[in-house]
Amino acid sequence: MAVLQPVRGTYDLLPEAMRAHRHVVDTAAGVTLCYGFEEVATPVFEFTEVFSRTLGDTSDVVTKEMYSFETQGGDHITLRPENTAGVARAFITNGLAQHAPVKCFYAGPMFRYEKPQKGRQRQFHQIGVELIGAAQPQADVEVIAAGVAVLKSLGIYEETTLELNTLGDPASRTAYRDALVAYFSAHKDKLSEDSLMRLEKNPLRILDSKDPSDRELVKDAPVFGDFLNEESKAFFKAVKDGLDSLGIAYELNPRLVRGLDYYNHTCFEFTTQALGAQGTVMAGGRYDGLIEQMGGQPTPGVGWAAGIERLAMLANDTPEAVRPMVIIPLGDAAEIRALTLAEEIRAEGYRVEMAYGGNMKKRMKHANKIDAGIAIIMGDDELAKGVAMVKDLDSGEQEEVPLEQLVGGITAWELAEMYGEDGLPSDPQD
RNA sequence: GUGGCUAUAGCUCAGUUGGUUAGAGCGCUGGUUUGUGGCACCAGAGGCCGUGGGUUCAAGUCCCAUUAGCCACCCCA
Fold it and tell me: Any known ligand binding at A82?
């Protein structure tokens, strides 16, 4: 609007939005830790090859969505468009193979040069988990279960649908891909413009086309099931059985594909109707070929990523801001004592604001404006008596409390009055 | 990258067929005298009408471009 705009597709996280993000991240970190995923952080930029060599030369992410630049030293750098490649790189460079299986959780900004929409920014944020070094289908189940637990903790699981598919092992996938190319190539005249492109880049995507003419063709297209070899079928069955035994509902979606090349076997998405065209809330799958493709030893892996913005838009149980208590000193001696009193109460883990400036009324209004729950009014005469007037700003009740009790005893008094029975912050130090 | 819609105060929006000093609500600041807030009342500040061109005696209003947002496609989290 004004001359000073944020860069297209970026935005500021002001306290209210930041709290929603924090809630998503903290919830996910806590839940996934129960599954053994420990938080890690990798750089927000990597050498460009980390992404270009792994994501696939034909993927949209590589061909048109990367923020890449050359440094003064001549290095080719790219802001990470996703974090699986970065984690995989860290796995290799830190020699984590000896600790396999490695389970990690991450949260942070990702960058994609896309046309912004609601729920789609150029700098956005993702949480995700990766389980590297476990080839068993039980690992897929565990990863998906962790995702379910996160969604449940955020109170949005009921709004999502788990869509599940298998991409098979590379042999199955290649065979199917070839069959699809053969089939659609024979009907090029009926394919949409987009799908002609897809035929070159990612034929599997044609199956998911929204074009009516494409859809007609898709009806008679080869079915992936016919090309899955026994191992791939058994693997997929084991994943489904695991989910069944956990009572995790899913819908098989044979058209569910991945834009990134390193996926194989299991792929899944949690989708919702509540976010318009940006319906994917959490997505992931197995990527057994990735580490090897990057130059490491052959190492299987499985994981998912979820957009924090999208999760935050769905979650409506974001905690309220912690209400402060406000100290209102009146008089020179009280002003001085208030400084130390504030420090003492803060040291106990409470949010304390000072109301300086203005007369009593001004300061009370200030207390009100910052949504304080408690006002500690301390004039020179109270100070002389060694007390302070403690006022509950919701009920209007107030009473004199000896200063020494105030510091040591504020906890119970303040919490009870300030938050009532519910809405109690679990730990005010957080 | 393609197509459509939108752009007026911090926020949500009015601004008639182009016509004087561009409005409201909320919010913000100050006040309604003494050390007690919320409510009410009074007053005030705050707008290159997204930006740049053009048409016209005259443009917030019409035209073009540009930027940004929104929506759909593509793709994705």
Answer: yes
A270 closest-nt by C1' vs CA: B77
Q: Which residue has the closest alpha carbon to B8 C1'?
A: A1
Task: Report the predicted TM-score, pTM, of the whole model to 2 decimal places.
Answer: 0.90
CA atoms of A242 and A248, how far apart (whole Å): 9
Q: Boundaries of CATH 3.40.50.800 in chain A?
A: 325-419
Q: Where do you find CATH 3.30.930.10 in chain A?
A: 15-169+229-314
Superfamily name with CATH number, domain A15-169+229-314: Bira Bifunctional Protein; Domain 2 (3.30.930.10)
- CATH number belonging to domain A325-419: 3.40.50.800
- Binding residue per annotation — A113? no
Q: In this predicted model, what pLDDT tens digit does every residue of A223-247 receive, in sequence order?
A: 888 899 999 999 999 999 999 999 9
Tokens of A146: 């962790």
At residue A58 the predicted structure's pLDDT band, cuts being 50, 70 and 90, is low
C1'-nearest nucleotide to the CA of A360: B35
Cα→Cα distances A411→A149, A398, A422, Å: 33, 16, 16
C1' nearest to CA of A359: which nucleotide? B35
